[in-house]
Amino acid sequence: DPAVATELIAAEARAILPFDKLTFALQMTQTGRVVLLEPGERRALASLPLISVGSTPLARTLRGDLPCAFVQNGGECRMMVPLRVAGRIHGALIFGANSPTRLTEQHVLPAQHLADIVAAHLQLFRRVALLPHPASPTRASATNNGSIKPRRLIN
């Protein structure tokens, strides 16, 4: 269950990092757009809106141009670390703090370590969301009265 898993990840992160908010940014397409997921989110990934990252520090982190990113906006700070699986970046963990000095460069290593541990699990959620949904079942034909006739595969 992704909702439970993301809540557990957030709880583990709180034990090692000083942050107020955690957001999961998962790349659902190759076109610079992500789904932003909060811990405990119950909606399916495919139903969440795709957000364009443009040329933001998040985009640069997702492309691998930056090993991590810090953004300060007014009185808050955000730290972003990539979610890597088999050398490819599939998203990022975004840690937000209400104080600009709460998250520092000393927090990058434990944040990246956590991201490396959980990346494969989040990649699995992402891949399942990208699978095509099976077509709706069709009615059985009237000729077989709704039952399926077995076929012999070997003569």
What does this structure look like?
This protein is 29% helix and 26% strand. The protein has helices at 2-16, 57-63, 108-130; strands spanning 21-27, 33-37, 50-52, 69-73, 76-85, 88-97. The longest helix has 23 residues, at 108-130. The model is unreliable at 136-155 (pLDDT under 50).
Note the main attributes of this structure.
single chain; six-stranded antiparallel sheet; alpha+beta; 3 helices; about 160 residues; disordered C terminus
Low-confidence stretches: 136-155
Molecular shape: globular
**Relative strand content:** 25-35%
Average pLDDT, all residues: 84
Radius of gyration: 21 Å
Order of helices and strands, N to C? HEEEHEEEH
For the largest beta-sheet, the strand count, sense and barrel status come to: 6 strands, antiparallel
Helix content: 25-40%
Spatial order of the strands forming the largest sheet: 3-2-1-6-5-4
Q: How many runs of DSSP E, i.e. beta strands? A: 6
Distance between the termini: 45 Å
SSE-based structural type: alpha+beta
Fold blueprint:
Layout lengths: L1 H15 L4 E7 L5 E5 L12 E3 L4 H7 L5 E5 L2 E10 L2 E10 L10 H23 L25
Antiparallel strand pairs: 1-2, 1-6, 2-3, 4-5, 5-6
Helix pairs in contact: 1-3
